[in-house]
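Researcher: Following up on the earlier apo prediction. This time include the ligand. It's zinc ion, with the SMILES given after the sequence.
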Amino acid sequence: MINKNKSLLRAFVRVFALILVLSMMLVGCEEEPPKRTFPDYNNSNNSNNSSKDTIKPNNKPSNNNNNNSNSNSNNNNNTNNNSSSSGKKRVAITYDDGPHNVRTNAIVDELAKYGFNATFFVVGNRVDGKAYNGANAVKYAASKGNEIAIHAYTHNNYYDTCEKSVYNSELDKTYDAITDILPNAKVRLMRPVGGRITEERTADCDYAVIMWSVDSNDWKYKNDGQPGVNTIVNNVMSQVKDGSIILMHDIYENTYLATKEILKQLNAQGYEVVTVSELLGSPKAGVKYSKAS
Ligand SMILES: [Zn+2]
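Model: Understood. Below is the ligand-bound prediction.
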């Protein structure tokens, strides 16, 4: 009888220990946004292994504006001339699918070293959710003069096939997520998920619809180490020209590493990296753009 009680006690202790371990594992897991259904956005690596502290500026010092809103330097600028007053070639680098609590900040810091700005097409549930400390990343990017724009709220829907109510919700909720933390932001731009949107929805859109002319294909090489970084850099540098809009994603470590090299090379070749609104002059709502004309 005593032996039976002992073995019962041992079994009970084992089950209790198992439950304890399992619950500790669950609590330890980082909160993830909903699983995505698009090939380029699966398995986003969320490890915090950025090496931003090792960045060494090699050129002009940063030129921070420290205004806590979107860049609005295109006000009263109705020209489509994509060359700056200094005559430099200009391009826009765009980052989709963030914010990311480490990589977005690291990319922003890298841009700031050259006095450059980019445009971040954000996912709303990463901005107003807890998973990626996204609100702080977006506020930080905006504080350095970068442009914040709309990509999606859930990133689970294409804008050429989803219901109108779903489409409106994706845009409206992302707009709200941005303006809740940046009340003075001028949100002028959107980028459809996968670049897919109907002509009708484009024409009715309250935002300028921003596509791209240079695809880095960074998501394809996100897990390929330094060879992948080199491929991303080459994909961009072999295609870039004055007026280009470059597509990247600020959630991957390789994108951050490639960005460092791309900025270095663009700067060396006399390019200036500006926001999409600066590049395009005054992009119009309901019009689709893929580069400066
Ligand atoms: Zn996307």
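Model: The longest strand covers residues 89-96.
Researcher: Noted. I'll compare it with the apo version next.
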